Amino acid sequence: MFETIQGEGAFTGVPAIFIRLQGCPVGCPWCDTKHTWTLDPEQQVSANQVLAKEEASEAWFDTDVQEMVELIQRQGYRARHVVITGGEPAMYDLVALTRELLDKGLTVQIETSGTFEIKVDARTWVTLSPKVDMKGGYQILDQALARADEIKHPVAMDKHIEELDSLLARSATNHNALVYLQPISQQQRATELAVRTCIERNWRLSLQTHKYIGIE
Ligand SMILES: C[S@@+](CC[C@H](N)C(=O)[O-])C[C@H]1O[C@@H](n2cnc3c(N)ncnc32)[C@H](O)[C@@H]1O
Ligand SMILES: Nc1nc2[nH]cc(C(=O)O)c2c(=O)[nH]1
Ligand code: SF4
Ligand SMILES: [Mg+2]
Q1: Does ligand 3 have an atom closer than 6 angstroms to the CB of 90?
Q2: Which of 64, 99, 122, 179 has CA atoms 20 to 30 A from the CA of 163?
Q3: Which Enzyme Commission number(s) are on file for it (predicted)?
Q4: Span 133-167, pLDDT tens digits
């Protein structure tokens, strides 16, 4: 858990408390947070040790809603926006946590891949970065496409644009969702593809702005 500026998508530039939930089985080859994939029992540490981390590692702690809210209060964060990400946060039931944070007057956003049913309070902003190679079929992904407030698609090749086209064409998809292309790993060719396609399609561009300025 840490405080920074939201670097991506519709809330870019907004100071935010990030909660990074550990564990993800999806395995995107270009994932920039591979240290979140594991839930190694040997890497379990205390809340204080995680909060004191100065760089990314596989260390994690176990918690519950009440402790999480207390920790946020204790940290004295000034941000009024919470981003729940991971790893894959939708592996967890987040209804109680999101409700508690929203009831305290914070705004809440989840970053998810659409590979697990999304369990959040209805007021939560859902940023979907759909991962299309679904082994379990389209049922879960369609739920996510219907719930998404923002669809933020990482792109590096033409096939990624084609994937997004087919997702947007699904009848389940929320056609009011904001659509963003996000170049993979700041690659120049990916950025050029994203810029060109955003202009052609009237989609939006999401740069991982935190990476350009070297913040978390
Ligand atoms: C690390 S993921 C965690 C949340 C969730 N598992 C997901 O994929 O949405 C957070 C965001 O970073 C994006 N992302 C991960 N690696 C990236 C990379 N190398 N370049 C651009 N975006 C990336 C994901 O697509 C997602 O939008
Ligand atoms: N600053 C900042 N903004 C972000 N937006 C989404 C992120 C993520 O890893 O989910 C992220 C992140 O890791 N850092
Ligand atoms: S789903 Fe998200 S956290 Fe998991 S591997 Fe893909 S980008 Fe990384
Ligand atoms: Mg990130």
Answers
A1: no
A2: 122
A3: 4.3.99.3
A4: 656 678 999 999 999 999 999 999 999 999 999 99
Which residue lies with its CA nearest to atom 6 of ligand 3?
A: 28
> How many Cβ atoms from other residues are within 10 Å of residue 112's Cβ?
25
Q: Would you say the CB of residue 33 lies under 6 angstroms from ligand 1?
A: yes
CATH class held by domain 2-212:
alpha beta
DSSP character at residue 132: -
- Cite the annotated binding site by residue number: 5-7, 20, 24, 28, 30-33, 85, 87, 129-131
51 vs 141: CA distance, rounded Å: 33
Strand extents, DSSP E, the chain: 2-5, 15-21, 81-86, 107-112, 125-128, 150-155, 178-183, 204-205
CB of 121 sitting under 6 A from ligand 1: no
**For residue 120, what pLDDT band results from cuts at 50, 70 and 90?**
very high
* pLDDT, tens only, 84-102: 999 999 999 999 999 999 9
